[in-house]
Specification:
The complex is a heterodimer of chains A (113) and B (116). Chain A is an all-beta fold and 113 residues long. Chain A is 0% helix and 53% strand. Chain B has 116 residues and is mainly β. Classes of the chains: A mainly beta (113), B mainly beta (116). At the A-B interface, strand 5, strand 6, strand 10 and strand 11 of A face strand 4, strand 5 and strand 10 of B.
Chain lengths: 113, 116
């Protein structure tokens, strides 16, 4: 079985400050990890994914994520947050032997001006 | 290129009715997955199709069914609608192959179903 935990329901940061959204996962095989963002009344927008290789993954809109196998974590980061980054963020995992994504509960990010 | 297209965007149905939702994947993508999003349960996997075959199914009652056509377009059907079926239904397409591999998933904007 595979699962994802996003321990924070909400993250609040000031514009220009670093943003971190936490994610831990559990899979039986090699993990394929994803981050998505969702704006109100919209679908999920892809940010980045980890397949294999470098533990630091760079994605869209200045976001990056660090894969840590020993801690089974895949935290999303942005060095300088923008007000427009305010949205709902989802971490997801897929086992390499499966064909479905398991999502975390989501973290609401609010960036204040 | 065109993204994942889901129709209709919004739907209002009455309890006991049935509904069919449609998803057209990105051209060349043969894998289509469906997810249900609700405030209480979050994002839950419904099923995944590849080349007209269902490869995986989530823990949903038999009222939820789907299919995929030879052009990779997919439909999902919910029969005997219940109030709890009100949700945003999301479709995702992927280049997933028979042998596995990791490709990204592109989601559509979803169909918002309201059951009254």
């Amino acid at each position: 079985a595979q699962s994802v935990a996003q321990p924070e329901d909400q993250v609040n940061v000031a514009e220009g400050n670093p943003l971190t959204v936490k994610c831990t996962y559990s899979v039986s095989g090699n993990p394929y990890l994803f981050w998505y963002v969702q704006y109100p009344n919209r679908g999920l927008q892809f940010l980045l994914k980890y397949i294999t290789g470098d533990n630091l993954v760079k994605g869209s809109y200045g976001f990056e994520a660090e894969f840590n196998k020993s801690q089974t974590s895949f935290h999303l980061k942005k060095p300088s947050a923008l007000v427009s980054d305010s949205a709902l963020y989802f971490c997801a995992v897929r086992d390499n032997n499966d064909y479905k994504l398991s999502f975390g509960a989501g973290t609401t990010v609010t960036v204040r001006a | 290129k065109a993204g994942v297209t889901q129709t209709p965007r919004y739907l209002i149905k009455t309890r006991g009715q049935q509904v069919t939702l449609s998803c057209s994947p990105i051209s060349g993508h043969r894998s289509v997955s469906w997810y249900q999003q609700t405030p209480g349960q979050g994002l839950q996997f419904l099923f995944e199709y590849f080349s007209e075959t269902q490869r995986n199914k989530g823990n949903f009652p038999g009222r939820f069914s789907g299919r995929q056509f030879s052009n990779s377009r997919s439909e999902m059907n919910v029969s005997t609608l219940e109030l709890g079926d009100s949700a945003l239904y999301l479709c995702a397409s992927s280049l997933q192959q028979v042998g596995g591999g990791n490709y990204g998933y592109t989601f559509g904007s979803g169909t918002r179903l309201t059951v009254v």
